[in-house]
Design goal:
vWFA_dom_sf, UCP010256, Uncharacterised_CoxE
C-alpha cells in the first residue's frame, strides 16, 4: 500500500480511520485499507451511510466488536466523544508455551506506532489452515540424515577406531581367568544437531505463513530434535501441536494456539523474551537456528541487534530467511539488517518452500558468512 504522504489529500480521512482502528487492535491488513478506499470511490459516495457500508464490507469488523467499530466511525467522521473501550493496550510481550497451555509475561517493552506493513501494534486474530497435501514427503525422509551433526558425550561399543574401555576390558580379563582377550573399545556417538525454527506471523508475512507452517510440520515430523515457535507481538511454542502426524489436524491445532496472527511486529522484544526463558534458550544452544521473517523492525532496532548477538553466541548456525530476498534488487540496506548482518551465517531467500527445503537440507555443508556474500553482491 502507498505511504500516507504520497496519497491525494481527500483520501486522508479514510486512511486515518483505518489507522485509528489498527490503533485499537482491529486486525486490518493493508489490502483491506486499499479496498476500503476503492469502495468509497466506486460508491461516490452520496452519503455518510455509503462510507459506513463500504467500511463494514471491506474492513470486516468482528461481530462482537460492531458497536465499538460504529463508535470509532462516529468519533472519527462526526467528531463524537471518544468511545470508552476496555483497559489500556497490553504492551508486554506474552509467551505461550504449548506444554501446559499457560502464558508467562516477560520484560515490558516500549510500544511504538507502526507502519502500514510492519508495526508493533498487537492485533489478535485466528487463522484457518485447510487440509492440503504438503508435497514435503521427500524432505521429511531426507531431513534427519542431512542435518549437521555433533559428537555426543555418550559412547557406544565398537570393534575398531575407538578408545580403550578399560573397565570392560579388565572385566573381560577376569572372566577369562587372566587370559588377555581382544581389547574392548568405545567410540563417542554422533547425533544430529537440534533445529530451531522461529516463524514471523505478523501482517507483513501473511502471504507466507501457511507455507511456513507446512514446512514446520515437515521439520518436526522428520527430525527428532526440532522446535518451532511463532512470534509477532507474542511468542508461542507450537512444537507439540506439530507432532500430530496428520498435517491438517496439526495446523488446525497450531492455529488455535497462536493469538497474534497477521498483527504487528515486535521482533526484537519477542526474541529477547525467548532468550529470557532458560528452557527456551536451551533449545538454541548448539542448534541450527532458522528465523523466517522479513526483519522489518520498526523504530529502534537495538533490541533486535542484542537478541541476534545472543543467538549467535549460543547457536551452531544462525540463519535469516526473508521473502524480500527473492527480488534481484534486494539488498540488506535497512538499519536493522545492516546491524545484524555481521552476526548472521546466512541471509537467504525465504519466499518459497523449494528454496527453504533446499537450504535446510544443506545446513551441514559449510558456506561463506552472510556478510561476505552480500558485500560481493553490493
Amino acid at each position: 500500500m502507498m505511504r500516507g504522504e504520497s496519497l491525494p489529500h481527500p483520501t486522508m480521512p479514510f486512511l486515518g480511520f483505518a489507522r485509528l482502528l489498527r490503533c485499537h487492535a482491529f486486525a486490518i491488513a493493508p489490502e483491506q485499507i486499499t479496498s476500503f478506499m476503492q469502495a468509497v470511490t466506486l460508491l461516490g459516495p452520496r452519503s455518510m451511510n455509503d462510507i459506513l457500508e463500504a467500511a463494514l464490507a471491506t474492513l470486516a469488523p468482528p461481530p462482537d466488536r460492531r458497536g465499538e467499530f460504529d463508535a470509532h466511525f462516529r468519533n472519527h467522521f462526526y467528531g463524537d466523544a471518544e468511545p470508552s473501550i476496555g483497559g489500556e493496550e497490553d504492551v508486554e510481550t506474552r509467551i505461550k508455551d504449548d506444554r501446559g497451555m499457560r502464558e508467562e509475561e516477560s520484560q515490558a517493552v516500549r510500544q511504538e506506532k507502526g507502519g502500514e506493513l510492519s508495526s508493533e501494534l498487537e492485533q489478535l486474530s485466528s487463522r484457518d489452515f485447510q487440509r492440503d497435501p504438503d508435497g514435503l514427503g521427500s524432505f521429511r525422509r531426507r531431513l534427519a540424515s542431512a542435518l549437521p551433526a555433533r559428537r555426543s558425550f555418550r559412547t557406544a561399543r565398537t570393534r575398531s577406531r575407538g578408545t580403550l574401555d578399560l573397565r570392560r576390558s579388565l572385566s573381560e580379563i577376569v572372566s577369562a581367568d587372566g587370559d588377555i582377550p581382544l581389547p574392548q573399545l568405545r567410540r563417542r556417538q554422533t547425533v544430529p544437531r537440534k533445529l530451531l525454527l522461529l516463524i514471523d506471523v505478523s501482517g507483513s508475512m501473511k502471504l507466507h505463513t501457511a507455507d511456513y507452517l507446512k514446512l514446520a510440520h515437515a521439520v518436526v515430523q522428520g527430525a527428532d530434535r526440532a522446535e518451532v515457535f511463532t512470534f509477532g507481538t507474542r511468542l508461542t511454542r507450537i512444537t507439540s501441536a506439530l507432532r500430530i502426524r496428520d498435517c491438517g489436524q496439526a495446523l488446525a491445532r497450531a492455529a488455535a494456539l497462536v493469538d497474534d496472527w497477521d498483527g504487528g511486529t515486535r521482533m526484537g522484544p519477542t526474541l529477547l523474551a525467548f532468550l529470557s526463558v532458560p528452557r527456551f534458550s536451551a533449545f538454541a544452544r548448539g542448534a541450527a537456528v532458522v528465523i523466517l521473517s522479513d526483519a522489518l523492525e520498526r523504530g529502534d532496532h537495538s533490541d533486535l541487534e542484542t537478541a541476534m548477538r545472543r543467538f549467535r553466541a549460543r547457536a551452531f548456525r544462525l540463519s535469516l530467511a526473508t521473502p524480500l530476498a527473492s527480488d534481484p534488487r534486494f539488498r540488506p540496506a535497512t538499519a536493522a539488517l545492516r546491524a545484524i548482518l555481521p552476526v548472521l551465517d546466512d541471509l537467504i531467500d525465504g519466499s518459497s518452500l523449494r528454496s527453504l527445503t533446499d537450504f535446510i537440507l544443506s545446513l551441514a555443508r559449510p558456506a561463506p558468512a552472510a556478510a561476505a556474500i552480500w558485500q560481493r553482491v553490493s
